[in-house]
């Protein structure tokens, strides 16, 4: 059988720096675990715009559709703020999500014990936290029509449309219930059914799917604003949260801070199974391109490395190897190894992006 294939789109800002550390881990898997991957690389975001005048070429998209999994770094930067909306770096990322139909975005928020004092919340609120936000990723207000800035009388009006079909809600609900069964068997669905028709439909469909096929899973519903409040008040009440595209964007950034640093959070974006049984998939850190620290070797590569661990688990059914990578990260953190974002108010001396990657490699070696 052919080696599993990966397309690396490192993108902009710190993307290439953190991805360089992931490449070391990919090589390690081939050398030390007999799990070689076929890796190709291409451009996305501002880097693609600079080279081709578009944040995602059709050729790159075609490659993304063919491989077993895409690994993405980050897109965007102040240099591109002046560009027309249609060619902004973010459009490349959104086009990948939409065209690959990656409707289920898994954003785990796990608090590593060594970092529990780092959160802006108290230790007992976050220690041991392990929740999963399942964000709908291909519909809702991100893609709904009509959209645009129009002239109405003598002023302009900006319009976006929140639109969800029953089948779009049902498929992401199913993926949340399936995940919950492999975790603590609880799903909390979040919307704004008190003000939005799309929220009423969301609640109805999630309830129907639950009644029909997942009665063994505990289901609750919450308005998304209350959900944000509960995430900060007592996040450990949650196991899996399922929500729409925009609420998921907001709630996952909030959840990220529970864990201490945005530099820690991975994500997986999954679609329907391909002919080989593997899901269409893209893996990316939740953090952005961090232009303020780009090119300085300061970035934390852990979110990107943990995203590769998610690829091992969800695309390649290599849960044990994923756990190996996650344990290596945990060990390094427990040993007090810190990039700059992981230093508390008391300071200390941070190590570089590549030194963090090397420390994780050493922990991997030690796991053999
Ligand atoms: C995210 C990001 C993206 C989003 C941006 C970069 C388009 O914030 O993945 O959470 O809004 O989805
Ligand atoms: Mg976001």
TrEMBL record:
Cofactor-binding details, from the entry: Binds 1 Mg(2+) or Mn(2+) ion per subunit.
Binding annotation for Mg(2+): 225, 249, 253
Domain annotation Isopropylmalate dehydrogenase-like: ranges: 5-360
Enzyme class, broadest EC rank: oxidoreductase
Binding-site residues, substrate: 97, 107, 135, 225
Pathway(s) it belongs to: Amino-acid biosynthesis; L-leucine biosynthesis; L-leucine from 3-methyl-2-oxobutanoate: step 3/4
Binding-site list for NAD(+): 77-90, 288-300
Site entry (Important for catalysis), positions: 142, 192
Domain of life: Bacteria
A Pfam entry, by short name: Iso_dh
Cofactor(s) needed by this chain: Mn(2+); Mg(2+)
A GO MF label: 3-isopropylmalate dehydrogenase activity
Substrates-to-products reaction catalysed: (2R,3S)-3-isopropylmalate + NAD(+) = 4-methyl-2-oxopentanoate + CO2 + NADH
Entries under InterPro entries matching the protein: IsoCit/isopropylmalate_DH_CS, IsoPropMal-DH-like_dom, Isopropylmalate_DH
Entry EC number(s): 1.1.1.85
Keywords, in A-Z order: Amino-acid biosynthesis, Branched-chain amino acid biosynthesis, Cytoplasm, Leucine biosynthesis, Magnesium, Manganese, Metal-binding, NAD, Oxidoreductase
Localization terms from the record: Cytoplasm
Function: Catalyzes the oxidation of 3-carboxy-2-hydroxy-4-methylpentanoate (3-isopropylmalate) to 3-carboxy-4-methyl-2-oxopentanoate. The product decarboxylates to 4-methyl-2 oxopentanoate.
Family membership: Belongs to the isocitrate and isopropylmalate dehydrogenases family. LeuB type 1 subfamily.
NCBIfam families (alphabetical): leuB
Subunit structure: Homodimer.
Name under which the protein is recorded: 3-isopropylmalate dehydrogenase
Top-level taxonomy: Bacteria, Pseudomonadati, Pseudomonadota, Alphaproteobacteria, Rhodobacterales
């Amino acid at each position: 059988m052919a080696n599993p294939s990966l397309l690396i789109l490192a993108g902009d800002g710190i993307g290439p720096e953190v991805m360089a550390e992931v490449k070391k881990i990919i090589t390690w898997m081939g050398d030390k675990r007999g799990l070689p991957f076929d890796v190709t690389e291409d451009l996305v975001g501002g880097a693609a715009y600079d080279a081709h005048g578009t944040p995602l070429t059709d050729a790159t998209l075609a490659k993304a559709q063919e491989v077993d999994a895409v690994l993405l770094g980050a897109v965007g930067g102040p240099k591109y703020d002046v560009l027309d909306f249609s060619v902004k770096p973010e459009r490349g990322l959104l086009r990948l999500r939409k065209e690959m139909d990656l409707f289920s975005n898994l954003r785990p928020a796990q608090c590593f014990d060594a970092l529990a004092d780092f959160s802006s919340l108290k230790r007992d609120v976050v220690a041991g936290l392990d929740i999963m936000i399942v964000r709908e990723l291909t519909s809702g207000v991100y893609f709904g029509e009509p959209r645009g800035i129009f002239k109405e009388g003598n002023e302009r009006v900006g319009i976006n449309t929140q639109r969800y079909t029953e089948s779009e809600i049902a498929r992401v609900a199913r993926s949340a219930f399936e995940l919950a069964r492999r975790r603590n068997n609880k799903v909390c669905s979040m919307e704004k059914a008190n003000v939005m028709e799309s929220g009423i439909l969301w609640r109805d469909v999630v309830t129907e799917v639950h009644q029909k096929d997942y009665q063994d899973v505990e289901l609750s519903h919450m308005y998304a604003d209350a959900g944000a409040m509960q995430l900060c008040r007592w996040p450990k009440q949650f196991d899996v949260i399922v929500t729409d595209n925009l609420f998921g964007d907001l709630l996952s950034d909030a959840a990220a801070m529970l864990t201490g640093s945005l530099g820690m959070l991975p994500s997986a974006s999954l679609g329907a199974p391909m002919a080989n049984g593997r899901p269409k998939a893209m893996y990316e850190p939740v953090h952005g391109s961090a232009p303020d620290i780009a090119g300085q070797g300061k970035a934390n590569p852990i979110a990107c490395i943990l995203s590769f661990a998610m690829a091992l688990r969800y695309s390649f059914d290599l849960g044990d190897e994923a756990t190996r990578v996650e344990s290596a990260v945990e060990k390094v953190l427990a040993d007090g190894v810190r990039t700059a974002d992981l230093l508390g108010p008391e300071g200390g001396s941070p190590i570089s992006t590549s030194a963090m990657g090397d420390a994780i490699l050493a922990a991997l070696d030690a796991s053999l």
